[in-house]
Amino acid sequence: MNRLLRKLAMTVMVGSLLYSTPGLCEESPTTEKVAKVRISQGPEIERNDYVVIIRWTSDNPGGSQEHYGVVRYGTNPNELSQTAKSPIRLNPGHSYTVFRVRMDELKPRTTYYYTVGAMEANGKDDGLKSEVKHFTTR
């Protein structure tokens, strides 16, 4: 019984050391937000017969490291009511960020209109918005 209690105490002690290490519990650092985020490349389309991916490069927006690339789209350029988003972790050491957002369940032979943007994981918009672009599925 004593061996079992010693083993249990040792397991708890080692586990508490591993999970109480400050580096493991800290939140991701934030970087200074830029005044205005601009798209430097794209948006461009990557696709095959089943999947469309929108890719673009922008200034690193700063703020929290956890962000989302966001595509708002629809079949009417004045009503972009659908949203696709993809998580990304910003690298504070880079001056730019490459976003890629996958769009699923698109109808064949349909023209879609879209804009791209970005937001922090908490939902705060980065103020990035492209002009309306379009593509047609196969």
Compact description:
With 138 residues, this protein is of the alpha+beta class. The chain is built from 2 helices and 8 strands. The chain has helices at 2-19, 22-25, and strands at 39-47, 52-59, 66-74, 82-89, 96-103, 111-120, 125-129, 133-136.
Structure explained in plain terms:
This protein has helices at residues 2-19, 22-25, and strands spanning 39-47, 52-59, 66-74, 82-89, 96-103, 111-120, 125-129, 133-136. It is α+β, with helices and mostly antiparallel strands and 138 residues long. Strands 3, 4, 6, 7 and 8 form a 5-stranded antiparallel beta sheet that branches.
DSSP, total strands: 8
Count of helical segments? 2
Low-confidence stretches: 20-28
Shape: extended
Rg over CA atoms: 22 Å
Report how far apart the termini are.
69 Å
The topology string of helices and strands comes to HHEEEEEEEE
Helix/strand structural class: alpha+beta
Mean pLDDT score: 83
Major sheet: 5 strands, antiparallel
* Strand percent estimate: 35-45%
Share in helix: 10-25%
Write the topology of this structure.
Layout: H1 2-19, H2 22-25, E1 39-47, E2 52-59, E3 66-74, E4 82-89, E5 96-103, E6 111-120, E7 125-129, E8 133-136
Keywords:
44% strand; 138 residues; five-stranded antiparallel sheet; three-stranded antiparallel sheet; 2 helices; extended
